[in-house]
Amino acid sequence: MTKKPIIDLKIIIKKGIMPKKTPIGEKIFSLRKALELTQGALGEKIGVSRAAISQFELGESLPSPTTMAKLSQALSFDLAEIWQASPNPSTAEDEHRLLPFFPLSAYPSLVSFVDPAMRDVLHTVLARVPVLRLPGVDYEGAAVVEIQGDAMMPRYPHGSRYLLHPVLEDLRFATGVHFFILHRKTVLVRRIVANKAGTLTLRADATGEEVSYTISELRQMRQEGACFIRRLGQAVHLPPEQ
Hints:
about 240 residues, alpha+beta, 9-stranded mixed β-sheet, 9 strands, about 30% helix, disordered N terminus
């Protein structure tokens, strides 16, 4: 019977073959052990290979945003902040900003955001995604939304992701594409094609369908906690998938 060669980890580390562990890698390892999961079992739960889990734990690669979210769910622990503190070997020069994420699956609960008292609570339970920070883009107070439906095709297709920015209280100067939650139930993305005489006209790019609201109506809804408005920014730049 042939004996397996003994691997000297000290030699491997000295030669630089062993990668330096990352904070997220160590956390994944400790959480996986606490749940008594093998690397293969954890990989099956989130749809990646055992080798991928090994690479995450050893610091050879960093989970993609999608994989990070799945790991957080499988391990019952929010890994977003630890992810940010873990440099990616392949994207170490990139800077990222963690932003709240409104995926398609969150649309039924988005109506709760019209209530100012609920926003801080909901922000704590929303998933966050690391977005590549670009020069000249203001990320303060921003979030990421996943577009639902094809009403704003071709520029904003179903499932595409865009930044959401806060809007000024004075809607008289609002222009461009905005994200609306109206009457505590309607969630939509529309282009402001006219803003005059105290009235905003909203249009769906794909169908040309228009609807109008007076600024006083929207202001009243906002005061009553029945309206939420954000300006749609540019498409988000996510780190590359592993």
